Each structure stands twice: as structure tokens, then as C-alpha cells.
Amino acid sequence: MTEPLARPKKKNPNARTRLPTLPPGLRSRSAHGLTRAAAEGVFEMQTCADCGTVQYPPREVCGHCLSEALEWRPTASGGELIATTTLRHSNDLYFRERLPWRVGTVRMDAGPSVVAHVHGDVGHDDGVDGKGTRVRLVLKLDRSGQAVLHALPERNTPAMQDDPQMREATCDPKYRRVLITDGRSELGIAAARAMLDAGASVVFLGDGKTWKSDPAFDRLTQSDERIQVVELDVTDTDSVDRLAASIGGKVEIVVHTADHLRDGGVMSRRDVILAKDTMEIKVFGMMRVAQAFGPGLCFRAADGSNNAVAWVNLLSIHALTPLPARGAWSAAQAAALSVSQTLRAEFHGAGVRVVNVFHGPVEETWDQLTPPPKLAPGAVAKAVVKALQDGTEDAYVGDIAQELRTRLRENHKAVERELRG
Amino acid sequence: MSTRRPYDGVAVAVPVTVPYVRYSTRSAHWWLGRALGELIRASGIAKQEVDGVCVSSFTLGPDTAVGLMQHLGMSPRWLDHIPMGGASGVVALRRAARAVQCGDAEVIACIAGDTNHVDSFRNTVSQFSRFAQDAVYPYGAGGPNASFALLTDYYMKQYGATREDFGKLCVAQRDNALRFPHALMKKPLTLQQYLDARPITDPIHLFDCVMPCAGAEGFLVMSEARAKSLSLPFARVASTIERHNAFPDDPIQFRGGWAMDCDAFYEHAGMGPDDVDFMQTYDDYPVINLMQFEDLGFCAKGEGPDFVRKHTFTLDGSFPFNTSGGQLSVGQAGAAGGYLGLVEALRQLTGSAGPTQIEDVRIGLVSGFGMINYDRGLCSGAALLERGHA
After folding, report:
1. Which of A82, A98, B74, B129 is deepest in the core (most CB within 10 A)?
2. Model confidence at A368, in pLDDT bands (50, 70, 90)?
3. Cα A184 to chain center, whole Å?
4. Which of B32, B49, B40 is nearest to B14 (CA)?
């Protein structure tokens, strides 16, 4: 059984910092079907629409009937581990730093045999005649951001999340230090509580209004000694730089919560002052924090068991399609999504994951005109933690966000017309 | 109901090995050129009379056999490039034999060679194939060690093979290699040393792994009449087979394509396994030797371990095998590894094996195996060769 992860010791500043390297990241275009599934934490394999054969590795035409009608479909993820090995040598720098490493051959119930990473808690009693230990396969993104298969024990084991392979595949907050950029907002407070519950060792709560008393915020900051309130105004480059100079080397997860929700479209106002304020916080604020904290995150991206792992953006689902009644704010969400995707490319070299959590309307101070259902801030916070623990890249929280995404896939023109009010 | 015709009138001659080195600063062109040069010098045939060329190499890129022809100043009327790794030798032989038999070429030089720079192996392995890139290399980047570890793990559990069984073959091959002038591994190996070696990728340990190196091999295919007129000792081709992607529904590889073609193989030759005087297998890892014993009819499936326990495999033993030491003791010079057994078999059958020569050998079996494209070796081939000279 996996030994529970030990609390990381305080680091000797003269000791070697393991530099970030990536596992082999080249993939064919077809193989990125697996990436899309892994990014959202679902299990899909390429399946022939004509004969039903499940394909692996991904193909261009069916390996059985040569049909080109290959679709990505949810697939039974069970199988038997029929052969296993522990690598004590690797040709790749990333794996060399992480040996020994277990891999195996799994004969899937769905048909194909797959090579997979094998979790330490999977039994070694794999047998003969193609019968082996039962496992379930999951698709995860590795540090190069590409999908890989992991064979997990059929049932959860007590500390399975702490297995070294799982720690690499996920961004679990356990024993990690988290910066929440706007700690005063309802989402910020909820995110802080969720991170503490998930075992974060420190939560830095960004606070742009240190002079101001607020009962909910004060209750939170006094409730747990792992919380440290830090002064942070994301619209002020000096403020961001000061904080990065102070704690930049001690942050392993950034949760960007800062937002500026205001009603109003484009022609409903005679100026862009409010829109500028929103952009200043949501978009330029994010860029400032990324510029100040990004290099530190990248440097520490492979530094021990509490390495820097993730940058999380909270985004409205209206980043994907605007709500005209909040047109300026929707534009800022869309711009923030675009910046986030650029950050994903820029963080890729270090293996730091950029996670976008898209949510529907939330019960919060400035959202007065949206009818229910609205999400409790805690539900969004839980989704953030789950995305980090599962190692996913995109999460859609709540019925409205999920419904809107489905509708966009079905007919984005209909969505434009339906949202115009 | 074989429709195959015999290889009447075809001679295989002039086995050539360009001595291997661990690392080379030369390119593949140098190694292949050396092999061709040796073939021409040793045969006494003029360069322009070699009108067919067959090439195998992993490190020739960006060139193919075409570019190599300009590089070497050749103008063949028959040219082939066989990218089948460990099956390249057998496949080159059967392609060339038919071309000569049908008159498409008169003298064909079959050459295989690779260089080995310090980073060649990693480059070859990391970009080996699309399936490997998508579905194997990202899983620990263990290369062939890892793929064969999985096959070996399965085979050991399924058929009760032990590390001692594999070790016995490795030790016998090393004994043979001590007599072979071109073997890179010249230190004696004991079973205890084999068993005590460090694990690389369980259950693969150090002496189960071939050592990548640079080198080249070659031979000539021509008519018997031509060989006789040049007084070149030669071998005849009694039978050959090749097969690709055999048994795709096997959940893991426990047999190779030989098992599909074994009966036709011996039927075509009018011989059986008992007629074979020595065997050269493709031996990049010991487990694949056992599969070749089984799938080529020397014992039943699963009886490989017993077969190993019953025989000795040295030059003077009860089943002479990999008489030059095989890749495990000579080294794996890329695609030349797919020629090594064939070239050594030709030396045995033409009486030119020198220190490794076995007395009075008449029939040799050579088998090839190559290309772990995803989870298993896809190409298999075998040839039965018969001593041709009086």
C-alpha cells in the first residue's frame, strides 16, 4: 500500500533544486483525442462506428474493417494487468529523475491491449492465460500536458493519491502552498476553505483592502493558522511585484479569483470607464500576477513532492459566449480565457498546469439580476479542488455552465439568439 | 498446397562483417560503403557488375537506398530498401534470390549497417514509430528493454521459464563469442555473473540486453553458375518465410509469425527440424530465442524452457546456436543485427567461419525478428540454407 506522503521538510536553500523536465510529448493528431478526454477527466477511446472495434493506439482507419468512421466514445475502462515491469533505467531525463517507474500491459475488457503506467497499489499476482489482476484505467494528463493511461487498483486504496505517479499526474493541494489573488470575494473565501480542507500547508489570501473589516473574511482569517493574509492589489504592478518578491518562491498553486462583475452592455453606457476597470482587474491583473509569479512557479516546477504545479483561473462560462446584458464583463472573461490559453503554452515548458474552471452564475454580492439556479461559492471551490486532485485542465461547474457548453456544441448560432434577451 | 517455387540456381556467397565498434563518429554511409567495398574486394567482381543492391539501415536518414547509390557511385538496375530491423537479412535474401532467379539482376549486394553516435540510440528509440511515439515511449521511455521486459514477464509466468534458462543461453553465446574475432564482448561470462547482474527493467537484467554499436554486414546473391565461375563457395536457399503483424489478437506476444508459416517452411525445403545442423536466431533479448525454438518446430509451444534445459548451445554442444555469439555478445549494430545471424550462417556453410567453424555442417537455419512498432515485434522471417559447394 502507498505510504501517506510525508509533510515536506523545510528546504535547504543550498541543496540542488530538481529542474523541470517533461516526459516525451510528441503525439499524432489522432492521439490528441485522448488528450481531449483526459483534459476533462473522462475515459474515451476511438471506436469504429461501423464494426464497433475499439482502437488503440489511435488510428486513421479501423484496424479491423478499414472504415474511416472512427469516433471518440465513452469506453469500459476495466481490464486485466497481464504483464508488468519496473523500470530502473530510462532513456529520458524526466523518467531518469523519477525511477523506479512501474508500467504494464493491460488487456482491456473493451478489446485492445494497452501499455499503461501502473499504480503502486495494483497487486503483483498477475497470472497466466491472459488473466491478471483486475485494474481500472484512467486517462490523465502527464507533465507534458499529453494524455497517458494509468492502471489503478480496482477499488480505491487509502493513500492512493499520494503514489508518486499520481502526484506527478495531478496537482493535489495537499502539503502545497496556495495563493488566492482575491481572498475577500465570496469565491476567494470559499476557495480558501476548500484548499485548507484539502490539506494545503499555507493559504496566502490576497487582500486589496487591508483597512476594511468584513465579518466573513475576518472569521476565515482567524479560523486557521495556515492562513496568511497578504496585501495584493492586482491593478497595481508595484503591489504585485512586492508580494512576488516576498512569497514568490513559496507558492505552488495560484488560484486567480479576482473579478469585477458589473451589469451593462456596450451601448447602454456613454463611456468605457467601467469596462476599463473590469479589464484592469480580470485581464491585466491576471497578466501582472503571471508576470510576477510565473517564473518562480516554473523554476520550482519539479522541486520535490511539493513542487509548483498549477495556475487556476476562475472564469464565467460567458468567456465562451457573451451575456449581452453584461457585455463588458463578458468581454473581459473572454479576454481572460485567451490570456489563460497563452499562459498554458508559456507554462508548458515547465510542466505547470493551467486549469480553467468555468462556472455559471454564483451567489455573490454583485450578481443581483440573475434568476436561480445559482451556484454556492463553495460548489465552485470544490470543483477547483477536484480539478486539481484529478489533474484535469478544464472543468465546467454547475448545470448552467454544462448546459451552455452543450448548447454551444450543438448550435452556437442558436445560443447567440437565445442569450440576447 | 504450396505454390511456392524452389530457389533453384541461386547462390548466396561472400559473407562480410565490417568489425563493430561501440561508438562511431562516422555516418551510416561510411559503414554501408565499407560493407559494399568488402563484398567487391572479396568476390573479385567489378563494381559496375553489381547490378542490384538491397539496403537496410536505421541511421541513413535523411537518405534512403537511392541517395546511397549516388554516394557510392553505383548504377544498379535493381534496388531495394528494407526497413524491417531484425528481419531485414532474411527478407533481403528472399527478395534478392527471386530477382536473380528471374533475371532482374545478376549480382545483388545485400548490405545492412548503422552508425552509433553517443545519442543515436535515444534518437532512434524516441522516434521509432507513430504507435511507439503515441503509446509506448511516453510510458517511462524504456525503449526495447521495457517492451521485452513485459513479454519476458508474461512468458516466464505462462511457461515457467526461469532466469537460469535465459542465462544458460547467454553464457553459451558468450562462450562462442570468445572465439569470434569481431565480438565486442570478450570477457568470459558465468551463470552466476549473469544472475547477479543489476536489474535494468524487471525481469530484464544487464546481460539480457544487447549493446547498441556501429557496424555493417553484407553478402552477395548471384546465380550458381556465376559463383562457380568465380570459385566462390556458396550456400543454396532451401526455403524462406516472412510474416508481418501475425496474430494481432493475441493480448501480448508469446509467439511470432514463424508459428503461422512453420509447416510450409519445412515442407518447401523437404526437410524437418531434425535436419538442421545449427541455428542462428535473432537474439536481442533471450526470451525471443525460446519463442524461435518453439515456433520453428524444435519443441512445442511452452516447451522452450525444457528444450533449453536439455541442450547445450555452444559450438561443440548438442544444439549449436548463435555461433558467433549473437547480438548479445557481438553487439547490435542497428539493422546489421538483422544480418548478423545470416552472415555467420553463410560463413559456417562456406567453411569460412575460422575459429567458430563447426565441423561438417550442411544445413543451417537463420531466423529474423524485428520492429517493436507498439507492443510486439511485427516482422518475422526464417531461411533454411544448405551448403552449396562440393
Report:
1. A82
2. confident
3. 22
4. B40
Number of domains chain A contains: 2
pTM of the model as a whole: 0.94
Residue B15: pLDDT over 60? yes
Q: Which amino acid is at A24?
A: P
A190 and A291 assigned to the same domain: yes
* Residues 6 or more apart in contact with residue B320 via CB below 8 angstroms: B277, B278, B279, B313, B314, B358, B361
Interval A38-49: pLDDT, tens: 999 999 999 999
Residues 6+ apart with CB under 8 A from A304: A8, A11, A18
Element of type H or E holding B280: strand B278-280
Residues facing residue B16 across a β-bridge: B218
Cβ atoms of A156 and A182 within 8 Å: the answer is no
A45 min Cα distance to partner chain B (Å): 13
Q: Is residue A19 part of a domain?
A: no
Q: Which residues of B179-213 are buried (b: 16+ CB within 10 A; e: fewer)?
A: bbebbbbeeebeeebbeebebbbbbbbebbbbbbb
Whole-angstrom distance, CA of residue B345 vs CA of residue B363 = 9
**Residue to test with chain B: of A115, A126, A150, most B Cβ within 10 A:** A115
User: If contacts are CB pairs under 8 Å, which of residues 72-131 in chain A contact chain B?
Assistant: 82-92, 94-95, 101, 103-105, 107, 113-117, 126-130
* CA separation for the pair A20, A234 (Å, rounded): 28
Which residue from A57, A84, A107 is facing B153, i.e. has the nearest CB? A84
Give the domain extent around A265: 177-419
Residue with cell 487509502: A158
Give the ipTM.
0.94
On whether both A159 and A252 belong to a single domain, the answer is no
Contact flag B137-A24 (C-beta cutoff 8 Å): yes
Domains parsed from chain B with CATH numbers: 10-119+213-229 (3.40.47.10), 130-209+235-387 (3.40.47.10)
- Cβ burial of B64 (10 Å; 0-12, 13-18, 19+) is middle
State the Cα–Cα distance between residues A222 and B235, nearest whole angstrom. 90
Q: Which amino acid is at B190?
A: T
Smallest Cβ–Cβ distance between B252 and the set A63, A83, A116 belongs to A83
Distance from CA of A39 to the nearest CA of B (A): 17
What radius of gyration, in Å, describes the C-alpha atoms of chain B?
19
How distant is the Cα of A129 from the closest Cα of chain B, in angstroms? 7
Sequence-ordered alpha helix ranges (H) in A53-201: 93-96, 164-169, 186-197
Chain B contact for A409 (CB, 8 A cutoff): no
**Which of B120, B131, B137, B139 should we substitute to test contact with A (largest number of A Cβ atoms within 10 Å)?**
B139
Q: Do B126 and A31 touch (CB under 8 A)?
A: no
**Rounded distance between C-alpha atoms, residue B297 and residue B269, angstroms:** 14
For B:224-263, CB contacts with A below 8 A are 248, 251-252
Residues B109, B13: Cα–Cα separation, whole Å: 10
Cell reading at A179: 495563493
- CB B235, CB B12: distance < 8 Å: yes
Q: Which of A84, A85, A108 to mutate to test the interface with B (most CBs of B within 10 A)?
A: A85
Last residue of a domain, one of A141, A169, A197: A169
- Do the chains contact at A91 and B125, CB–CB below 8 Å? yes
Cell of B195: 544472475
Q: Encode A96-129 in three state secondary structure.
A: HCCCCEEEEEEEECCCCEEEEEECCCCCCCCCCC
Residue A128 pLDDT: 59
Are A326 and A264 in contact, with CB atoms under 8 Å apart? yes
Torsion of CA B126, B128, B129, B133, to 10 degrees: -10
pLDDT band at B124 (very low <50, low <70, confident <90, very high): confident
Residue whose C-alpha cell is 546481460? B207
> Is some CB atom of chain B closer than 8 A to the CB atom of A63?
yes
Place of cell 500576477: A289
